[in-house]
Amino acid sequence: MIPIIILFVLVLIVLLLPLETLHRNAGDGTDNNKAVPAPLPCELQLVETLPIGLSYTQNSPKFMGTYEAWKLLLDKAKLTVDIAAPYWTLRGIDVNDSSTQPGDHIFHRLLANGDGGKPKLRIRIAMNKSQESILHADAKILANYDAAEVVAVKLPNAGVLNAKLWIVDGQHFYLGSANMDWRSLTQVKELGVLAQNCPHLAHDVGKIFNAYWELGSNGDGTIPSQWHWTFDTRYRLGRPMLLNVNKNYTMQAYISSTPVALTTTGRTHDLDAILNVIESAAEFINIAVMDYFPLIINGPNVQFWPPIDNALRRAAVDRGVAIKMLVSWWPNSHPSEDNFLRSLQEFSQVMQHVDIQIRRFIVPVNDELEQIPLIRFSHNSFMVSDKIAYIGASNWTGEFFMHSAGIGLVLADTTLIESTIRTDLFKLFMRDWYSPYSLALKRNLQI
Ligand SMILES: *[C@@H]1O[C@H](CO)[C@@H](O)[C@H](O)[C@H]1NC(C)=O
Ligand SMILES: *[C@@H]1O[C@H](CO)[C@@H](O)[C@H](O)[C@H]1NC(C)=O
Ligand SMILES: *[C@@H]1O[C@H](CO)[C@@H](O)[C@H](O)[C@H]1NC(C)=O
Ligand SMILES: *[C@@H]1O[C@H](CO)[C@@H](O)[C@H](O)[C@H]1NC(C)=O
């Protein structure tokens, strides 16, 4: 009997061996002892806020609005809604203008959850700890009416909880630049991504929300020196999650985070994610951000902070990668910002093969809103290369990567197909670049 079993086992080993080697060869080289996992389901689309009055040509690409995306998330919610945002000013309390309505509507939908003191949904809010009551009044009201549980997160080094994130039922999420602010739904240009029926990526981004929740809940706000293993992730740069996007094509995805103290085991730091997009580009890199400085600019001492600037110069000079940057301009923009941008662009003047073009994106002031000053600007934060789409919420200045809490989503094409969420982002960028709102750098920019 025993020899027969041994023989059987041997035959089995011989039969299975080729199969195993086959799988090994099909691997992407990063994880040789495992078979390639099947891509995980995820419906992804770009969502944006175009400030009222901005108009593009008829045939320019169009995307779902941030307001529609948030309403859709609330429609879908059955059990839980987790929201991270720096501050809450959804209600247009001191503003008499119809453009506050979408924000008011979202606020009242959330507030209705408290009806009868028996919440239907568990709504958790993590926000930045701030002394100014105007920044947290909305969230306080939601807590007082039992509509939501609210925690405030205090970060060291004057860091701001800057992430803007919604997670619904552990299945769907929004991630991007839009604040819980009525202006972010009608007056400020914003960009994000809506993920539906995307449980695996939602679970991973949920770990970051849980870290915020833990920090806000544990009283003294100290950051654990060692995070519990439940905050660890398996998905990172070099070992991404494979997604079957919109039941149609495969992309590689991972979620990055800042600062280092909140970047738990296995996760890629947001700066490393950005540097990798720049370093892996072969043809072009298009960047849209609100502010860009090779400095840690806020705080007691200005410090030089060149990692992104260096990587861009190297890509352009050493590898001939074409770079386009669309940086926001509004009356509150720092006057010196143009100098840093011009310094970067100057390379193109002295070396023929270098192609760095920088423009400012200006959201024109709306006459009707002149009595509400300083609310119209471009706030989106993203990058698209010939391979990768990156969606975040940070200014590209040092403090956002050193001290603030933020999240980035990295999505890489795996095959050459005509239309992916990366090509959507490329089309969106080009629409803005060639729009009347994009202006070449010049001294004393005025509109
Ligand atoms: C708000 O604006 C409307 C129409 O412009 C006006 O009728 C109304 O009196 C205003 N309300 C306040 C409180 O200013
Ligand atoms: C965030 O919180 C810190 C203190 O924890 C505060 O200094 C800062 O002003 C806050 N920023 C915002 C945007 O609320
Ligand atoms: C960066 O972004 C925030 C809003 O997200 C803005 O208030 C701030 O002024 C920006 N610029 C700098 C240089 O910090
Ligand atoms: C899948 O993508 C291709 C192009 O990449 C597109 O033509 C096709 O309509 C898509 N199919 C579905 C079911 O969305």
Description:
It comes from Drosophila lebanonensis. Residues 1-21 form the signal peptide. InterPro entries: Diverse_PLD-related, PLDc_3, PLipase_D/transphosphatidylase. Belongs to the phospholipase D family. The protein is α/β, with parallel strands linked by helices. It has a single domain, classed as Endonuclease, Chain A (2-Layer Sandwich), CATH 3.30.870.10. 31% of the residues lie in helices and 24% in strands. The protein has twelve helices and 22 strands. The strands form three sheets. The protein has an 18-stranded mixed sheet that branches. A two-stranded parallel ribbon has the order 4-9. Helix 2 packs parallel to helix 3 (101-111). The longest helix has 25 residues, at 2-26. The model is unreliable at 10-32 (pLDDT under 50). Residues 86-87, 128-130, 135, 154, 158, 160 line the site of one 2-acetamido-2-deoxy-beta-D-glucopyranose.
**CATH top level assignment:** Alpha Beta
Report the radius of gyration as a whole number of Å: 23 Å
- CATH architectural name: 2-Layer Sandwich
Q: How much beta, percentage-wise?
A: 15-25%
What are the low-pLDDT stretches, counting only 5+ consecutive residues below 50? 10-32
* Residue share in helix: 25-40%
What small-molecule ligands were found? 2-acetamido-2-deoxy-beta-D-glucopyranose
The overall strand count is 22
* Fold-level CATH name: Endonuclease, Chain A
List the domain count as a whole number: 1
Please identify which CATH superfamily we are dealing with: Endonuclease Chain A
Which structural class fits the helix and strand makeup? alpha/beta
Major sheet characteristics? 18 strands, mixed
Give the N-to-C terminal Cα separation.
91 Å
What's the helix count? Answer: 12
Mean pLDDT: 90
Anisotropy-based shape: globular
Family: Belongs to the phospholipase D family.
GO molecular function: catalytic activity
Keywords: Signal
Signal peptide: 1-21
